From TrEMBL:
Residues covered by region (Disordered): 1-23
Alphabetical list of InterPro entries matching this protein: AAA+_ATPase, ABC_transporter-like_ATP-bd, ABC_transporter-like_CS, P-loop_NTPase, PstB-like
Record-level Gene Ontology MF annotations: ATP binding
Domain annotation ABC transporter: ranges: 27-269
Matches recorded under Gene3D superfamilies: P-loop containing nucleotide triphosphate hydrolases
UniProt entry keywords in alphabetical sequence: ATP-binding, Nucleotide-binding, Phosphate transport, Transport
Protein's recorded name: Phosphate ABC transporter ATP-binding protein PstB
Top-level taxon: Bacteria
């Protein structure tokens, strides 16, 4: 059954992981607009991203979830016709300031994409590349330690520790996605943005990524775009609902799914439109 076929809102887990924690604000967005030529894709969006809570972005196809996610680490800079206005900060620093080093920013605010995209290099090199170019390891041993710790944090170490020189592209889809998460973790990020990270994965691989998101909660601020409302309910403590480029409602996930304030949110989570 797909989300659009469900007649009721997804159940929110009642275990402790679902409860939001008091949090410090890691990123802020104020009055953010994004234009692709004449298309006004994001309209006056303001939001705070917590460190301790996982934030899910949900909404129907084309509502601007990915576009807004990409404003947080300036990935839209790579799209020639994209224009971003408004203010975005990371620990109070202006992300769009001319002096902001974008390579450094994207290490601090890492990204995991819909389709796993390991480099056509060894498992070790996939993880070692970032720390090496950012000068994070003083020695070969230090680099090996970073690789091991990142693979452990990404829940992949046990599966790959005996074949670190195999190609990253030879792993299964779910393993490749965890490798991409290890690659993001290796440069010691503060925020991890995930753009539908499970959409190309089977249910078992998806469950592993969801467990991993739980385990990483609080170590990094995590924002996940998902089409799957059950997934949003399972992995996040805060949910933002987007519709036609507007942020319609943002709040605690349990509240959004059980007691939404806006009619459009209610219609979406009960599957009245998709
Ligand atoms: N590179 C681009 N060039 C031009 N328009 C774009 C580009 N990327 C997105 N858009 C437009 O911006 C709007 C928002 O798209 P976006 O991909 O952010 O939505 P989404 O909610 O993530 O959709 P989906 O869930 O289908 O991935 C849409 O109208 C889309 O057509």
């Amino acid at each position: 059954m797909t989300d659009t076929e469900t007649a009721t809102a997804p159940a929110v887990p009642t275990d402790r992981t679902a409860a939001p924690k008091p949090s410090s604000i890691k990123m802020t967005a104020r009055d953010v607009n994004v234009f692709y030529g004449q298309t006004h894709a994001i309209k006056d969006v303001s939001i705070d991203v917590d460190l301790e809570n996982v934030t899910a972005f949900i909404g129907p196809s084309g509502c601007g979830k990915s576009t807004f996610l990409r404003t947080l680490n300036r990935m839209n800079d790579t799209i020639a016709i994209a224009k971003v206005t408004g203010d975005i900060t990371l620990d109070g620093e202006d992300v769009y300031a001319p002096e902001m080093d974008v390579v450094q920013l994207r290490a601090r605010v890492g990204m995991v994409f819909q389709k796993p995209n390991p480099f056509p290099k060894s498992i070790f090199e996939n993880v070692a590349y970032g720390p090496r170019i950012h000068g994070l390891a003083a020695s070969k041993q230090a680099l090996e330690q970073i690789v091991e710790q990142s693979l452990k944090r990404a829940g992949l170490w046990e599966e790959v520790k005996d074949r670190l020189s195999d190609s990253g592209t030879a792993l299964s889809g779910g393993q490749q996605q965890r490798l991409c998460i290890a690659r993001a973790i290796a440069v010691d990020p503060e925020v991890i943005l995930m753009d539908e990270p499970c959409s190309a994965l089977d249910p078992i691989a998806t469950a592993k990524i969801e467990e991993l998101i739980h385990a990483l909660r609080g170590k990094y601020a995590i924002v996940i775009v998902t089409h799957n409302m059950q997934q949003a309910a399972r992995v996040s403590q805060k949910t933002a609902f987007f519709h036609l480029g507007n942020l319609v409602e943002y709040g605690e996930t349990s509240e959004i799914f059980t007691n939404p304030h806006e009619e459009r949110t209610k219609d979406y989570i009960t599957g009245r439109y998709g």
